Amino acid sequence: MTQTRHRVRVSAVARLGPSIREIHLEPLEGDHLPAFSPGSHVVMELPLGEHVLRNAYSLTSSPFERSRYAIAVRRQPDSRGGSRWIHDELVPGRQLRIEAPNNYFPIRAPADGAPLLLIAGGIGITPFMSLLRARRPDSGPMSLHYAFRDRVDTAYLAELKRLLGSDLHTYESTAGERLDPASLLAAQHLGTQVAVCGPAAMIEAVRAKAAALGWPEQRVLYERFSAPAGGTPFRVRLQRSGRSIAVSSEETLLEALERAQVPVRSLCRAGVCGECRTDLLGGEAEHQDLFLSDQEKTAQCAVMPCVSRACAGGELLLDL
Fold first, then answer.
1. Whole-structure pTM value
2. What is the pLDDT of residues 292-317, one digit of tens each?
3. CA 262, CA 237: separation in Å to the nearest integer?
4. How far apart are CA 64 and CA 48, in angstroms?
Protein backbone atom coordinates (compact mmCIF):
# COMPACT_ATOMS: atom_id res chain seq x y z
CA MET A 1 0.00 0.00 0.00
CA THR A 2 1.46 3.35 -1.02
CA GLN A 3 1.52 5.84 1.83
CA THR A 4 1.63 9.62 1.57
CA ARG A 5 4.99 10.85 2.80
CA HIS A 6 5.75 14.21 4.36
CA ARG A 7 9.07 15.99 4.77
CA VAL A 8 9.68 17.23 8.30
CA ARG A 9 12.40 18.97 10.24
CA VAL A 10 13.49 18.13 13.79
CA SER A 11 12.67 21.32 15.70
CA ALA A 12 13.70 20.13 19.18
CA VAL A 13 15.06 17.14 21.07
CA ALA A 14 14.06 16.95 24.75
CA ARG A 15 15.58 14.66 27.38
CA LEU A 16 12.81 12.95 29.35
CA GLY A 17 15.10 10.55 31.19
CA PRO A 18 18.57 8.99 30.87
CA SER A 19 17.38 6.67 28.10
CA ILE A 20 14.30 8.52 26.72
CA ARG A 21 14.21 11.33 24.20
CA GLU A 22 11.19 13.28 22.93
CA ILE A 23 11.54 14.42 19.32
CA HIS A 24 9.56 17.36 17.96
CA LEU A 25 8.87 17.44 14.21
CA GLU A 26 7.65 20.40 12.18
CA PRO A 27 6.50 20.50 8.54
CA LEU A 28 8.90 21.61 5.86
CA GLU A 29 6.04 22.56 3.58
CA GLY A 30 3.01 24.45 4.87
CA ASP A 31 2.02 25.33 8.41
CA HIS A 32 0.25 22.14 9.46
CA LEU A 33 0.82 18.41 9.51
CA PRO A 34 -2.01 15.94 8.79
CA ALA A 35 -4.74 15.56 11.41
CA PHE A 36 -4.67 12.48 13.63
CA SER A 37 -6.66 10.89 16.44
CA PRO A 38 -5.42 9.69 19.86
CA GLY A 39 -3.50 6.45 19.59
CA SER A 40 -2.11 7.19 16.12
CA HIS A 41 1.44 6.48 15.01
CA VAL A 42 3.72 7.63 12.22
CA VAL A 43 6.32 5.61 10.35
CA MET A 44 9.67 7.43 10.21
CA GLU A 45 12.37 6.72 7.65
CA LEU A 46 15.72 6.50 9.45
CA PRO A 47 18.83 6.61 7.21
CA LEU A 48 21.23 4.09 8.75
CA GLY A 49 24.13 4.27 6.32
CA GLU A 50 23.11 2.54 3.09
CA HIS A 51 20.07 1.06 4.81
CA VAL A 52 16.79 2.90 5.42
CA LEU A 53 14.97 1.66 8.50
CA ARG A 54 11.22 2.34 8.75
CA ASN A 55 10.03 2.40 12.34
CA ALA A 56 6.60 3.23 13.73
CA TYR A 57 6.33 5.62 16.69
CA SER A 58 3.25 6.72 18.62
CA LEU A 59 2.37 10.39 18.44
CA THR A 60 2.49 11.92 21.92
CA SER A 61 1.45 15.47 21.06
CA SER A 62 -2.12 16.73 21.28
CA PRO A 63 -4.24 16.18 18.14
CA PHE A 64 -5.25 19.84 18.47
CA GLU A 65 -1.65 20.96 17.92
CA ARG A 66 -0.95 20.33 14.23
CA SER A 67 1.96 22.73 13.83
CA ARG A 68 4.22 19.96 15.13
CA TYR A 69 4.28 16.30 16.06
CA ALA A 70 6.04 14.77 19.05
CA ILE A 71 7.27 11.21 19.58
CA ALA A 72 9.20 9.66 22.47
CA VAL A 73 11.88 7.00 21.92
CA ARG A 74 13.62 4.85 24.50
CA ARG A 75 17.13 3.62 23.71
CA GLN A 76 16.76 -0.14 23.42
CA PRO A 77 19.74 -2.33 24.34
CA ASP A 78 18.74 -4.84 21.64
CA SER A 79 18.04 -2.09 19.08
CA ARG A 80 18.45 -2.92 15.41
CA GLY A 81 19.83 0.59 15.07
CA GLY A 82 16.75 2.82 15.11
CA SER A 83 16.68 3.96 18.73
CA ARG A 84 20.47 4.18 18.82
CA TRP A 85 20.49 6.42 15.73
CA ILE A 86 17.76 8.65 17.15
CA HIS A 87 19.63 9.05 20.45
CA ASP A 88 23.12 9.49 19.00
CA GLU A 89 22.64 11.09 15.59
CA LEU A 90 19.34 12.95 15.46
CA VAL A 91 19.74 16.65 16.24
CA PRO A 92 17.60 19.77 15.67
CA GLY A 93 17.62 20.86 12.05
CA ARG A 94 17.79 17.33 10.64
CA GLN A 95 15.30 16.64 7.86
CA LEU A 96 13.41 13.35 7.63
CA ARG A 97 10.50 11.75 5.84
CA ILE A 98 7.46 10.35 7.65
CA GLU A 99 4.32 8.61 6.47
CA ALA A 100 0.91 10.10 7.20
CA PRO A 101 -0.49 9.00 10.58
CA ASN A 102 -2.41 5.74 10.93
CA ASN A 103 -4.43 4.58 13.90
CA TYR A 104 -4.85 0.93 14.88
CA PHE A 105 -5.22 1.80 18.56
CA PRO A 106 -8.18 4.23 18.57
CA ILE A 107 -8.37 5.25 22.23
CA ARG A 108 -11.51 7.12 23.18
CA ALA A 109 -13.91 7.36 26.07
CA PRO A 110 -16.87 4.95 25.70
CA ALA A 111 -19.90 6.61 24.12
CA ASP A 112 -22.16 5.22 26.86
CA GLY A 113 -20.25 7.10 29.57
CA ALA A 114 -18.66 3.95 31.03
CA PRO A 115 -15.21 4.24 32.65
CA LEU A 116 -12.05 4.08 30.54
CA LEU A 117 -9.18 2.14 32.12
CA LEU A 118 -5.71 2.75 30.68
CA ILE A 119 -2.86 0.32 31.41
CA ALA A 120 0.67 1.18 30.34
CA GLY A 121 3.98 -0.63 30.72
CA GLY A 122 7.23 1.32 30.31
CA ILE A 123 7.47 3.24 27.05
CA GLY A 124 4.00 1.87 26.29
CA ILE A 125 2.77 5.09 27.88
CA THR A 126 3.37 6.96 24.61
CA PRO A 127 0.11 6.27 22.73
CA PHE A 128 -1.91 7.48 25.73
CA MET A 129 -0.25 10.90 25.83
CA SER A 130 -2.13 12.29 22.81
CA LEU A 131 -5.42 11.36 24.47
CA LEU A 132 -4.51 12.80 27.86
CA ARG A 133 -3.07 16.02 26.46
CA ALA A 134 -6.32 16.67 24.59
CA ARG A 135 -8.64 15.48 27.37
CA ARG A 136 -11.65 17.70 28.12
CA PRO A 137 -12.96 18.21 31.67
CA ASP A 138 -16.26 16.53 30.71
CA SER A 139 -14.70 13.50 29.00
CA GLY A 140 -15.96 11.00 31.58
CA PRO A 141 -14.30 8.76 34.18
CA MET A 142 -10.77 7.70 33.28
CA SER A 143 -7.85 6.21 35.20
CA LEU A 144 -4.32 5.22 34.27
CA HIS A 145 -2.30 2.38 35.78
CA TYR A 146 1.35 2.88 34.80
CA ALA A 147 3.99 0.23 35.47
CA PHE A 148 7.67 1.00 34.98
CA ARG A 149 11.07 -0.11 36.20
CA ASP A 150 12.53 3.09 37.69
CA ARG A 151 10.85 6.49 38.11
CA VAL A 152 14.17 8.26 37.43
CA ASP A 153 14.08 6.96 33.85
CA THR A 154 10.34 7.14 33.20
CA ALA A 155 8.59 9.32 30.63
CA TYR A 156 5.98 11.97 31.48
CA LEU A 157 5.50 11.07 35.16
CA ALA A 158 5.29 14.67 36.43
CA GLU A 159 2.94 15.67 33.60
CA LEU A 160 0.71 12.66 34.22
CA LYS A 161 0.39 13.60 37.89
CA ARG A 162 -0.73 17.08 36.83
CA LEU A 163 -3.18 15.77 34.21
CA LEU A 164 -4.72 12.92 36.22
CA GLY A 165 -4.17 13.61 39.90
CA SER A 166 -5.61 10.77 41.99
CA ASP A 167 -6.64 8.90 38.83
CA LEU A 168 -2.97 8.04 38.22
CA HIS A 169 -1.69 4.82 39.80
CA THR A 170 2.00 3.96 39.46
CA TYR A 171 3.98 0.75 39.98
CA GLU A 172 7.78 0.97 40.26
CA SER A 173 9.32 -2.50 39.98
CA THR A 174 12.66 -1.52 41.53
CA ALA A 175 10.69 -0.50 44.64
CA GLY A 176 8.96 -3.87 44.76
CA GLU A 177 5.66 -2.60 43.33
CA ARG A 178 3.84 -4.83 40.86
CA LEU A 179 0.77 -4.26 38.73
CA ASP A 180 -1.58 -7.26 38.95
CA PRO A 181 -3.83 -7.21 35.84
CA ALA A 182 -6.08 -9.95 37.20
CA SER A 183 -6.92 -8.10 40.43
CA LEU A 184 -7.24 -4.79 38.63
CA LEU A 185 -9.73 -6.04 36.05
CA ALA A 186 -11.72 -8.02 38.59
CA ALA A 187 -12.34 -4.79 40.53
CA GLN A 188 -13.73 -2.85 37.55
CA HIS A 189 -17.34 -1.86 37.04
CA LEU A 190 -19.39 -3.68 34.43
CA GLY A 191 -19.00 -2.00 31.04
CA THR A 192 -15.52 -0.57 31.66
CA GLN A 193 -13.38 -0.30 28.53
CA VAL A 194 -9.69 -1.10 28.88
CA ALA A 195 -6.82 0.00 26.65
CA VAL A 196 -3.40 -1.55 27.27
CA CYS A 197 -0.01 -0.88 25.72
CA GLY A 198 3.28 -2.38 26.84
CA PRO A 199 5.22 -5.64 26.74
CA ALA A 200 3.55 -8.62 25.10
CA ALA A 201 3.29 -10.47 28.44
CA MET A 202 1.31 -7.59 29.95
CA ILE A 203 -1.03 -7.42 26.97
CA GLU A 204 -1.69 -11.16 27.01
CA ALA A 205 -2.32 -11.13 30.77
CA VAL A 206 -4.91 -8.37 30.38
CA ARG A 207 -6.59 -10.04 27.42
CA ALA A 208 -6.73 -13.44 29.14
CA LYS A 209 -8.22 -12.05 32.33
CA ALA A 210 -10.77 -9.94 30.43
CA ALA A 211 -11.86 -13.01 28.47
CA ALA A 212 -12.14 -15.05 31.67
CA LEU A 213 -14.37 -12.35 33.16
CA GLY A 214 -16.59 -12.39 30.08
CA TRP A 215 -15.68 -8.94 28.74
CA PRO A 216 -16.64 -8.44 25.07
CA GLU A 217 -13.58 -8.30 22.80
CA GLN A 218 -14.51 -4.81 21.62
CA ARG A 219 -14.06 -3.55 25.20
CA VAL A 220 -10.36 -4.49 25.19
CA LEU A 221 -8.01 -2.40 23.05
CA TYR A 222 -4.31 -3.21 22.90
CA GLU A 223 -1.10 -2.18 21.19
CA ARG A 224 2.40 -3.50 21.52
CA PHE A 225 4.81 -0.59 21.90
CA SER A 226 7.49 -2.01 19.60
CA ALA A 227 8.10 -4.80 17.16
CA PRO A 228 10.15 -7.79 18.33
CA ALA A 229 13.92 -7.60 17.94
CA GLY A 230 15.76 -9.51 15.21
CA GLY A 231 16.65 -13.17 15.41
CA THR A 232 18.34 -16.07 13.65
CA PRO A 233 18.98 -15.51 9.91
CA PHE A 234 16.80 -17.47 7.51
CA ARG A 235 15.72 -17.59 3.87
CA VAL A 236 12.39 -17.01 2.20
CA ARG A 237 11.33 -18.39 -1.19
CA LEU A 238 8.68 -16.66 -3.27
CA GLN A 239 6.34 -19.11 -5.01
CA ARG A 240 5.27 -16.91 -7.91
CA SER A 241 8.64 -15.48 -8.91
CA GLY A 242 10.86 -18.34 -7.76
CA ARG A 243 13.18 -15.93 -6.00
CA SER A 244 15.08 -16.80 -2.83
CA ILE A 245 15.90 -13.98 -0.40
CA ALA A 246 18.13 -14.04 2.67
CA VAL A 247 16.81 -12.39 5.84
CA SER A 248 19.61 -11.30 8.17
CA SER A 249 19.48 -11.33 11.95
CA GLU A 250 19.26 -7.52 11.98
CA GLU A 251 16.24 -7.12 9.71
CA THR A 252 12.64 -8.22 9.56
CA LEU A 253 11.15 -10.33 6.81
CA LEU A 254 9.25 -7.25 5.63
CA GLU A 255 12.45 -5.21 5.43
CA ALA A 256 14.19 -7.97 3.47
CA LEU A 257 11.30 -8.06 0.98
CA GLU A 258 11.39 -4.27 0.66
CA ARG A 259 15.15 -4.38 0.14
CA ALA A 260 14.59 -6.86 -2.68
CA GLN A 261 11.89 -4.54 -4.11
CA VAL A 262 9.10 -7.05 -3.55
CA PRO A 263 5.87 -5.07 -3.04
CA VAL A 264 4.11 -5.88 0.24
CA ARG A 265 1.28 -3.86 1.77
CA SER A 266 2.14 -2.62 5.26
CA LEU A 267 1.07 -0.05 7.81
CA CYS A 268 1.81 -0.61 11.52
CA ARG A 269 5.03 -2.67 11.14
CA ALA A 270 4.41 -4.18 14.58
CA GLY A 271 2.17 -7.20 13.93
CA VAL A 272 -1.06 -5.50 14.94
CA CYS A 273 -2.97 -4.13 11.95
CA GLY A 274 -3.00 -7.16 9.63
CA GLU A 275 -2.20 -5.15 6.50
CA CYS A 276 0.87 -7.24 5.56
CA ARG A 277 -0.78 -10.66 6.11
CA THR A 278 0.70 -13.07 3.57
CA ASP A 279 -0.23 -16.69 2.83
CA LEU A 280 2.37 -19.21 4.01
CA LEU A 281 2.72 -22.17 1.63
CA GLY A 282 5.57 -24.01 3.30
CA GLY A 283 7.93 -23.96 6.26
CA GLU A 284 7.33 -23.31 9.93
CA ALA A 285 7.02 -19.70 11.08
CA GLU A 286 7.71 -18.18 14.47
CA HIS A 287 4.63 -16.01 14.96
CA GLN A 288 5.17 -12.86 17.02
CA ASP A 289 2.11 -10.91 15.95
CA LEU A 290 -1.06 -9.92 17.77
CA PHE A 291 -3.31 -10.25 14.72
CA LEU A 292 -3.50 -13.90 13.60
CA SER A 293 -5.77 -16.21 15.56
CA ASP A 294 -4.37 -19.13 17.52
CA GLN A 295 -5.91 -21.45 14.93
CA GLU A 296 -4.15 -19.67 12.06
CA LYS A 297 -0.83 -19.77 13.89
CA THR A 298 -1.18 -23.49 14.62
CA ALA A 299 -2.18 -24.21 11.02
CA GLN A 300 0.88 -22.28 9.73
CA CYS A 301 -1.28 -20.86 6.93
CA ALA A 302 -0.16 -17.23 7.09
CA VAL A 303 2.58 -14.91 8.34
CA MET A 304 2.88 -11.26 9.22
CA PRO A 305 6.16 -10.30 7.47
CA CYS A 306 6.67 -7.29 9.75
CA VAL A 307 7.31 -9.55 12.77
CA SER A 308 7.26 -13.24 11.70
CA ARG A 309 10.45 -15.25 11.22
CA ALA A 310 11.29 -18.84 10.30
CA CYS A 311 11.66 -21.26 13.19
CA ALA A 312 15.22 -22.42 13.88
CA GLY A 313 16.60 -20.46 10.95
CA GLY A 314 14.69 -22.57 8.43
CA GLU A 315 13.04 -21.49 5.18
CA LEU A 316 9.59 -20.07 4.48
CA LEU A 317 7.67 -20.36 1.22
CA LEU A 318 5.38 -17.40 0.62
CA ASP A 319 2.60 -16.78 -1.87
CA LEU A 320 4.45 -13.89 -3.51
1. 0.84
2. 988 999 999 999 998 899 998 789 99
3. 12
4. 32
